[in-house]
UniProtKB/TrEMBL annotation, chain A:
TM spans (from-to): 20-43, 188-215
UniProt xrefs under PANTHER family: ABC TRANSPORTER PERMEASE PROTEIN, MEMBRANE COMPONENT OF AMINO ACID ABC TRANSPORTER
Protein name: Amino acid ABC transporter permease
Location of this chain's protein in the cell: Cell inner membrane; Cell membrane
Gene Ontology CC terms, in alphabetical order: ATP-binding cassette (ABC) transporter complex
GO molecular function, one term: transmembrane transporter activity
From TrEMBL, chain B:
A Pfam family this chain is assigned to: ABC_tran
Subcellular location: Cell membrane
Keyword Membrane carried by entry: yes
Organism: Paracoccus onubensis
Gene Ontology MF terms in the entry: ABC-type amino acid transporter activity; ATP binding; ATP hydrolysis activity
Name the UniProt record assigns to this protein: Amino acid ABC transporter ATP-binding protein
Amino acid sequence: MILDFTLIIARWQMLMDGAWLTVQLAAVTTLTGFLVGTLCAVARRSRFRLAASTAGLYVEAIRNTPFLVQIFLVYFGLSSLGLSLSAVTVAIIALTINVGAYTAEIMRAGFDSIHRGQWEAAETLGLTKFQQYWHVALRPAMERVYPSLSSQFILLMLASSVTSQISTEELTAAANFIQSETYRPLETYLLIALIYVALSLAMRVVFWGIGMIIFPRRRRLGTSL
Amino acid sequence: MSIVVLDNVKKSFGAVTVLHGVSFSVEKGQVMALIGASGSGKSTALRCIDRLEQIDSGRIEVCGHQVASADLDLRKLRLDVGIVFQSYNLFPHLTVEQNITLGPVSVKRMPKSEARKITADVLAKVGLADKASAYPEQLSGGQQQRAAIARSLAMQPKVMLFDEVTSALDPKLTGEVLRVIEQLADSGMTMIMVTHEMNFARRIADRIVFMHDGRVHEQGGAEILSAPATPELRDFVSNEL
């Protein structure tokens, strides 16, 4: 077996464009997914039954269905409502919905790990529920689940390859196109596998850096909570 | 004028009745020590005063707030009452200064510069002027507890509640915390403290309330510790010494 990358290297720009879209999708949906997930975690812990059960239903629905099916549901669901959105927008919505559910469970575990005394101290200072979450619980909760959170968002970046199915022109879609043009599928997918590895490693570095910024106590003392 | 009044307060947790009609009152500027064996209901009584627990029946009035009432403004109550816990409950991700400014800035909407000034002030009071930028875990237990007292003081409460604040500390660290509380008592702060430090209670408390089995069993001045009227208090005091 002889591997020949020349035809693929000639289409390098296409791969780079795909990789760039993958990076953008990952960056945007990490933020939106974190927001959705954290809000759902708060809702699940709420004493308002309706909020708690709605969030619970959402999390279970997403965690028990395949991502590809979720993408198609969003894609065809939105278009049946008469909304004609771009593939990228649909991909962002589907990825957010998907990772939001997993993030909700991770953040819920984080919030649950905050000792009752911390909540009571915050409450007796007169902080509102929102302020208790924002000032007292959010950062320690995140710090405790940070390894799971960052792994989840790296998985999200990898899962974005599935959005090639609705013709989002990200890295995998670029590869699909190139291999159909060059008849070199093995080389093409080997190469993008390497690119995905590089992206994953880069994301780890980025998350490490973000951690250094948002957890100054850990930066100074080097200990975990 | 009574600043804290408990009138026939009853409280159960499920099938377990913890308070069987507790009544006592604290005047402005008074220091009250709430003593009794573990499980006698003293901590629960204290927590009810700050509405950390909702009572089943009876009446609690704190600085004019009807604490058990459904239309209580909880935030206003919390502005008037400071509470310090046995386990300090400092926020571990914030420095001592950030722990202290959080309340004034977020709850009282105080400008940061003013909150910092108050922080310096209360930290000096508790002897931690040089620890503003430390994180809680860099402090000893006694220092953490003093920082927690400073955090409460920064809110300028009218009443301070202390829930066994020295129970987790060794005698040396206990001493440094008790000195801070004593200074606070001398400054005229109204205080209710649940404590096992009998000598301390004897020295600084204006009133002693002895709880037994969810009831106020005996109360009076510090002299009740030297000459208990009931066998239960006599027994309790002799065990403590």
